[in-house]
Structure formats: structure tokens, C-alpha cells
């Protein structure tokens, strides 16, 4: 194709555009807003209780605690499990930095475990080598919306008597062996950052949990260590989920399964359109139902592809270009970087293509054409 021909087809495709999704529920969001105004209750009210009940039911667990954001959710789970200074926590080497920061926030040490090149998730077979006598827990991340290989992780954790925490910030609604993510481990953390599969209109998060005693602790931890006003049996944070966000999340939760199904259709379209291209497409492991928070491909000609897509009006993002252990925040810590070979490969190869509710088949065909043109 000559460059003139390409210009004729130039379209802009944003990396994420929340406008079509918001338009679908705009009226219901406005009604929910009016409802909260009329009720006049803005913190720890009926909307939050109702959302917690509905989200627990959705995740097929007994309890949910609405909190301020995903980072606080992971941090409070660690606190509630009594994990702190001197303890080691196994974390994936390839993840958003929040997974690590939560461990550091309670004074424990994050221990990197390499990820699998096919699933992008923590490698069950690499856990044993990372284990120390101080290891208290493992945080698994269902990265990009794909559930981890939970059976293998569970037998490892049970054998060594350590807790399993799910970082489900990218996987609302995904299933492993027909069980919902969020119901697999000892506790799970969710983020409702606006671009997540279930997003608030601002910050928000949740913890799902089975154990009733832990549930009580987490409710106190998020609210100044208190169940009853001005009675504080333990130290706590102010890390609550607002009534208005809970009301909006209730509206959006009703649409979540449909939106995840739409993500699946978009991915199928991508797969067909890219089937002859030179990029590596994401794989799905057996018995898993991913929810495609992101559509992440691999190529060893990434710089070229980014520039070429950008010239064609298509925005892309790298999730994530620098692993947590190489961030300046951890400059004073030493980690075993030899044990993170796959992570080091992936950070130079992964690229996320646009994916959002309301994207058209034409947009996906256009992107696939540009990918092929760029790498041919
Ligand atoms: C978004 C995200 C978080 C943090 O959520 P916030 O609500 O932004 O604090 C944690 N872990 C992963 C994997 C995430 O993608």
C-alpha cells in the first residue's frame, strides 16, 4: 500500500474511551445520584451495604467490604492477616506496582516470582525456589483479566501453610474451574478505578472474603478501627467506599456480565483479524474464562509497531515497561533479578492494543490491518 492510500483510511482510535459505556447507563447513573441526594447519607449508608451484598453474591462469596481503592484493599488484607515487618510475601515480578506497594506498606518484604510467558501470570513451578522460612503469604494477580493456575498455587500454599491473596483488580467476573475470581483464595482485592472492567466514577475498591472473623476486622480497619462511633478497639484507616460511588457501582454491576461478553467478542474479532500477523496473541489456559481487561500482544519489533500505529492514529500502551523491582522506589532494596528472566523478556515485548466497550468491528479490522502493514 502506498502512504497516500493509508492516509485515506486514517481514523483515530483511542486506547480507552469510556464515553460509549457511560452513555449506555447515563440515565440510571443520574437517577442513582438523585437518590443519594434525596437520602442525604454520604458515608457508610444503605447504598454501600446494598452494593457489598450484591458484589459478594456476584463473586460467589459470603462477604464484601467496600473500600477506598485497590491499593488499600490489598494493604488492609495483609494487615488483617497480621502480616508485617520481618515477613516475606511472594508476588509476581510482572504486575502493576500496587501489588508490591501494599506489601511494602505493611513493612513486609515483596519476594519476586517470575511469570509464565504464555499466561503472563505467576509461574506455579517457580514458587518453591522463592520460598523462605519467613514467607507468610502469596499474592496472585489475575493479570490482564486471565485467572492464575489456581489449583497448583493452592496445593503449594496449603502444603507450606501460607495464605493466598488474590489481586483481582483486572479480573472482575473471570472464572477458574467455573468458580469466580475473588472466591478462590483466603481474601481478594478489587479496584474500581474507572477503566477497570467494573469502574467507579472516581476511586473505589473492595475486598471479598469468606471468614466471618476476618470480615469483622476488615470492616473496622477501613473505618478508624471502629464498629461503633467513638469506640476504637484497634488502630484503623479512613479507607471507606463513598455512598455515591456505591450507588453508581450498583448500576454498573448489573451490566458487568454483558460488558465482559462484549470484551470477549472484541477479542475474538482481534484474533481472527490478526491470525496471519507476526505478533504473538494471548493464550487462554484450560478451565479458565478470562475477562480481557487488556488485550496484550507480544512482538520483538515493538518500537516500530508503536510508532507505526501512532502514525495511523491508533494509541497503544505498555503494561508495564519497568518492573517494580527496578523502580526507583526500590533502589535501596536488592532483589534476585536472575530469577526474573521471563519478566525481563516480557517488559520489552508486550504491547496493549485498544479495547473498550463500544469499539466497532471496523476499528478492530483497521488496527489489525495497520499491525500487519507495519510488520510485513
Ligand atoms: C489497578 C490495579 C491495582 C490498584 O488499584 P487502585 O484502585 O488504582 O489503587 C492493583 N493491582 C492491579 C493489578 C491493578 O491493575
Characterise the protein shown here:
The structure is a single chain. The protein has 376 residues and is α/β, with parallel strands linked by helices. The chain is 39% helix and 14% strand. It contains 13 helices and 12 strands. Strands 1-9-8-5-4-2-3 form a 7-stranded mixed beta sheet, with helices on both faces. Strands 7-6-10 form a 3-stranded antiparallel beta sheet, with no helix packed on it. The radius of gyration is 21 Å and the shape is globular. It starts with a helix and ends with a helix. The model has no long low-confidence stretch (mean pLDDT 95). Pyridoxal-5'-phosphate binds next to helix 4 and helix 5.
Order of helices and strands: HHHEHEHEHEHEEEEEHHHEEHHEH
Strand order of the largest sheet: 1-9-8-5-4-2-3
Task: Report low-confidence residues grouped into runs of 5 or more.
Answer: none
Quickly give the structural class.
Answer: alpha/beta
Tally of extended strands?
12
Radius of gyration: 21 Å
Q: Strand portion, in percent? A: 5-15%
- Helix percent reads 25-40%
Shape: globular
Question: What is the overall number of helices?
Answer: 13
Distance between the termini: 11 Å
What is the averaged pLDDT score? 95
Amino acid at each position: 500500500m502506498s502512504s497516500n492510500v493509508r492516509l485515506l483510511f486514517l481514523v483515530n482510535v483511542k486506547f480507552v474511551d469510556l464515553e460509549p459505556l457511560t452513555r449506555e447507563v447515563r440515565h440510571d447513573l443520574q437517577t442513582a445520584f438523585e437518590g443519594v441526594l434525596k437520602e442525604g447519607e454520604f458515608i457508610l449508608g444503605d447504598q454501600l451495604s446494598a452494593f457489598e451484598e450484591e458484589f459478594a453474591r456476584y463473586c460467589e462469596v459470603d462477604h464484601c467490604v467496600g473500600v477506598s481503592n485497590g491499593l488499600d484493599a490489598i494493604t488492609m488484607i495483609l494487615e488483617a492477616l497480621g502480616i508485617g515487618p520481618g515477613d516475606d510475601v511472594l508476588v509476581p515480578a510482572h504486575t502493576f506496582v500496587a501489588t508490591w506497594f501494599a506489601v511494602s506498606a505493611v513493612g513486609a518484604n515483596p519476594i519476586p516470582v517470575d511469570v509464565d510467558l504464555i499466561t503472563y501470570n505467576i509461574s506455579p513451578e517457580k514458587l518453591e525456589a522463592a520460598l523462605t522460612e519467613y514467607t507468610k503469604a502469596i499474592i496472585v494477580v489475575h493479570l490482564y483479566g486471565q485467572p492464575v493456575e489456581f489449583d497448583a498455587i493452592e496445593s503449594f500454599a496449603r502444603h507450606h501453610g501460607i495464605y493466598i491473596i488474590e489481586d483481582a483488580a483486572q479480573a472482575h467476573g473471570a472464572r477458574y474451574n467455573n468458580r469466580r475470581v475473588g472466591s478462590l483464595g483466603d481474601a481478594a482485592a478489587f479496584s474500581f478505578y474507572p477503566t477497570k472492567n467494573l469502574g467507579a466514577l472516581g476511586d473505589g475498591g473492595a475486598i471479598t472474603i469468606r471468614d466471618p472473623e476476618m470480615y469483622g476486622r476488615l470492616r473496622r480497619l477501613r473505618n478508624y478501627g471502629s464498629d461503633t462511633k467513638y469506640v476504637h478497639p484497634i488502630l484503623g484507616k479512613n479507607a471507606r467506599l463513598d455512598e455515591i460511588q456505591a450507588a453508581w457501582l450498583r448500576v454498573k454491576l448489573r451490566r458487568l456480565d454483558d460488558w465482559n461478553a462484549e470484551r470477549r467478542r472484541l477479542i475474538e474479532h482481534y484474533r481472527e483479524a490478526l491470525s496471519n500477523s507476526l505478533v504473538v496473541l494471548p493464550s487462554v489456559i484450560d478451565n479458565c474464562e478470562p475477562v480481557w481487561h487488556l488485550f496484550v500482544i507480544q512482538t520483538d519489533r515493538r518500537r516500530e509497531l508503536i510508532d507505526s500505529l501512532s502514525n495511523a492514529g491508533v494509541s497503544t500502551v505498555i503494561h508495564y515497561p519497568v518492573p517494580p523491582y527496578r523502580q526507583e522506589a526500590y533502589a535501596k532494596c536488592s532483589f534476585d533479578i536472575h530469577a526474573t528472566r521471563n519478566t525481563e523478556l516480557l517488559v520489552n515485548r508486550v504491547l496493549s492494543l485498544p479495547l473498550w466497550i463500544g469499539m466497532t468491528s471496523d476499528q478492530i479490522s483497521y488496527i489489525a490491518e495497520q499491525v500487519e502493514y507495519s510488520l510485513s
